[in-house]
Amino acid sequence: MAGLSLSDLNLDYNGIYVLFLTIVAFLIPVVLVFPPVPPQTSDALLQTHSKAGVRRSKSNLRDQSSPAHLPRDGRPPTVQSLVIYPVKSCRGIELERSRVLPAGLEFDRVFMFAQLKSPFPVAVDATDAEKDVHRWEFVTQRQFPRLATVKVDLWLPDEVKQRKQSLEPTREAFLILRFPWRDLGWRGVLQVLGAKLTRGRAAQPEKEILLPVDFPSRQEIEGKGYTYEDVRIWKETMNALNMEKELPNELRLYLGVSNKLGLFRVDPAQLREVYRCAPNKTEAGCQPVTGFQDAYPLHIINLPSLQDFSSQVPKDEDLQELDVLRFRPNIILSGAKAYDEETWKQVRFKPGDSGLHNDARFHVSCRTVRCKMPNVDQVDGVRHPVEPDKSLRALRAVDEGAPLNGCLGMQLTPLFEANAAAEDHTSWIGVGMAVEVEKRGKHVYIKQ
Ligand SMILES: *[C@@H]1O[C@H](CO)[C@@H](O)[C@H](O)[C@H]1NC(C)=O
């Protein structure tokens, strides 16, 4: 039985072609069931958790430039949309309702990226102590606009799913960060193929990072090698938990960060106390605090103000419309007169059409003084060279406390009942709530 060759099998070219077709036809279902890419972490989470937030197709901001948001007689302003940004400077999550805590909306800005900066240059004969001087400094889209394209999903435990699968119930919530990434060579080709097979033709391969939402226990901190370090945010320094061990090096390459990149988790026991324009402890019901927000717990934008401003911003090919999300608001209002919010000092949110049964009260602390970040397109992470920064400075330098800066939107501090217990320092806010202005007055910004 020696020398069996192809010619002995009597296969002509037609035969080989048919054989080839048979193999391919057999492989197609195999590839569909077992795609040539390992399952993503989010595929596993889907079994026990549900993704929080409003689907893009159901977004309450779809018609944000419509005149329907202009004020109408006899109708109070209402909450049009709510947005949280669990990772500072990354993509936000639109919500229908949210819990309000002293430090702002629940899950807002719990993580933040930072880069390790050393003083440069260091003298050759400097002491080791001097050479070791380094400082973690927060990074935002101002330096690394690609942060805007890092998507963030919040996965909350789903009791129904867990019960169906008779799994040990877990109360743990997770964040998944996703950024576009493909490896070099054939591996990258497979990743592109896998993405398209599993998520549709337009899908691009992504890399995922899984993060626990709850603040880690002492054992977890030790076990995972997380460290407490000081990190600078604007002109303040916070002590927070560095979880950089969770970051793949690919993220640094994708963002274009040449320094060491850190990922900080805010420590709920070490929030920053807010003074300046904020109410004092007695007025607010508790000492105003904030986590990784820029300066105050919440930020609110009124759509008619944005529409008025936007109508005066020169548009070009790279800036066709000014999406409200460029301004990174938490609360987006409809139906207040343009810039009326700049005369508000205290507001009460009432149930309205929200389906909620509680009021939520806020101190309107000051105007939001803008940096250049609104120049970054929040969809593709591309920075416009001049607008809207130029128009903000030209048209919106309206606060005598910050005469050289443009302002748009207001900073809010939540108000709670005096003498309430710490666990009662909470309320709910939802889309459809109606806004009643309780106090009006003048705002003068106090610089940091
Ligand atoms: C808080 O502010 C109120 C009103 O401005 C003032 O009457 C009160 O004395 C202040 N309380 C403290 C503790 O500073």
UniProtKB/TrEMBL annotation:
Residues 269-438 form the MOSC domain. Residues 49-77 are annotated as: Disordered. Keywords: Membrane, Transmembrane, Transmembrane helix. GO terms for molecular function: catalytic activity; molybdenum ion binding; pyridoxal phosphate binding. InterPro entries: MoCF_Sase_C, MOCOS_middle, Pyrv_Knase-like_insert_dom_sf. Pfam families: MOSC, MOSC_N. It comes from the Eukaryota. The chain crosses the membrane at residues 15-34. SUPFAM superfamilies: PK beta-barrel domain-like. This is MOSC domain-containing protein.
